[in-house]
Amino acid sequence: MNFRSILYPGEEGGARAEEAPSFFADLNLDQIVAAVTAGKADYDLKPFFHAPLATVEAIRYRHEVMRDLERDEILACVTRFAGRMRRMREALERSGKIYHRQQKLWWFLDAVTVYCEAVEALLDELDAGEPRSRGMQGFRAWLAEYAAGESFAVLTREGREIKARLAEIEYGLLIRDGSVTVRKYEGEIDYSVAVEATFEKFAQGEGKDYRVRFPEPIEMNHVEAAVVDFVARLYPELFAELARFCAEHAGFLDVTVGAFDREVQFYVSYLDYIRPLAAAGLEFCYPRLAVTDKEILSRDGFDLALARKLTEAGRMVVCNDFALDGRERIIIVSGPNQGGKTTFARMFGQIHYLANLGCKVPGREARLVLFDQLFTHFEREEKIENLRSKFEDDLTRVHEILERATPRSLIVMNESFSTTALKDAIFIGRAVMRRIIARDVICLFVTFVEELARLSDTTVSMVSTIVPGDPASRTYKIVRLPADGRAYAMAIAEKYRLTYEALKARVRA
After folding, report:
1. Cβ atoms of residues 256 and 335 within 8 Å
2. 455 vs 14, 362, 408, 487, CA distance in Å?
């Protein structure tokens, strides 16, 4: 049976990207991926998180596998398999570092037998777990065929036979006058048994062990190595068979088994990351994705990177919604500073990106688009080396985005043109918005230029809100409201008694 990958269905391309996309830092995705892959360096998982999928079918494929791995019985057998494969890699690593030939061959043999055990146990446990996804069922069917094959049968049988025969070797050491003689065991009495039996009657319970245990070195010392060499000369046929076995099976690790061991950790590591957040009461869902339909929706979404920090600190996470219906394409976010607008923009980008990876996303419900490219335009510090002002650099970056964006792209802009005068920001903002509208691109734009929310019927206004009666306090809720900065200005004026009525009353006094 032909099985390709637990990450990609059929002939779907297995894209890898060693470098993170340019927008990762803007959306805090670099923090998320670093935390997800922490402790998993052996698997080199980051390239998988750097490459979103190209089709809805591939995303459904990953959803199915991830749902399987949310079941305890499937996750447990994959976890045990990963542990055995880790032992195999450790044995191979030891074999590669050791110089003594017989010890090198022994560690290689140990790696082979652990590998065979891992394959057989995984097959048995998958059969018992009855996976439901196409990916896990396909791999189980392939694994059954592989395990029943002649090459695996020979590898398993010969490896275990040789290891068992090596374990049965008995030999004696005769130490006399600074010399050591190695010979076959000739039935000599084992006096250690007799000594233990004699002193057993004096034992009065378990005594405290005061011995200091030192770590066992990987490499044998020269005396041990010499003894093993003499033992090999006493049993030349068996050690010759060990050498032949290791040479013939140098490439014993099947490519598909090795790929599964690595790729399945994409799911396991992400589920491990979101599990404590779910335990804290935050919701995650499998999003619906469309290619042409641009009506999007997210209920109770949140910034995943921020939620991790807040949850670990025992603080509350504020969730938000967004939606675009009909001809709506652009969300304009405005409101007071420090009100959660940038966090909302990051959430918007994170949820879409994670959805395009085939992952569960923050929120209880999500309907999103399959984008071809994701662009971000966040504030940057001025760079002296490019000899451009900050404003000129903003314009250059926006121009590059608009040149590359297609109707299937996604744009997230945050406080663009905030360093220029209001009149210029309105003029440039309108020009940029018209280009985005003409391309029919979905966009979220955080801006202080509220006039942009009234530019077209394709734009939607969302506003960060304040605590009623206390304009200095933020709710961090971003709600769908007409952009009207006067409401916030009035709240400030009322708090400091600067309204027209308050001033008149103070003048009379």
Report:
1. no
2. 42, 31, 22, 20
Closest CA to 303 of 127, 476, 137: 476
Tokens of 83: 């542990």
Buried b (16+ CB within 10 A) or exposed e, 409-429: bbbbbbbbbeebeeeebbebb
Beta bridge partners of 464: 478
- What angle do helix axes 304-312 and 29-36 make, rounded to 10 degrees? 60
Tell me if residue 352 falls in helix, strand or coil. Answer: helix
Q: Which helix (H) or strand (E) holds 334?
A: strand 330-334
pTM exceeds 0.90 for this model? no
Q: Which residue's structure tokens are 């048994």?
A: 193
Of 182, 185, 158, give the one whose Cα is nearest residue 241.
158
pLDDT tens digit sequence for 59-110: 999 999 999 999 999 999 999 999 999 999 999 999 999 999 999 999 999 9
Query: Domain limits of the chain?
Result: 1-30+38-185+220-271, 280-508
Residue 13 structure tokens:
């391309």
Cα–Cα dist 389/387, whole Å? 7
CA distance 368 to 408: 12
End-to-end CA, the chain:
92
> Which is the CATH superfamily of the domain at 280-508?
P-loop containing nucleotide triphosphate hydrolases (3.40.50.300)
3-state secondary structure 154-211: HHHHHHHHHHHHHHCCCEEEEEECCEEEEEECCCCCCHHHHHHHHHHHHCCCCCCCCC
Q: Do 425 and 418 contact (CB within 8 A), yes or no?
A: yes
Residues ≥6 apart with Cβ < 8 Å to 348: 298, 301, 322, 331, 412, 444
For residue 48, the surrounding DSSP H or E stretch is helix 46-49
Q: Which of 239, 233, 253 is nearest to 146 (CA)?
A: 253
Q: What percent of the chain has pLDDT over 90?
A: 68
3-state DSSP assignment of residue 475 = strand
Neighbours of 387 (CB within 10 A): 7
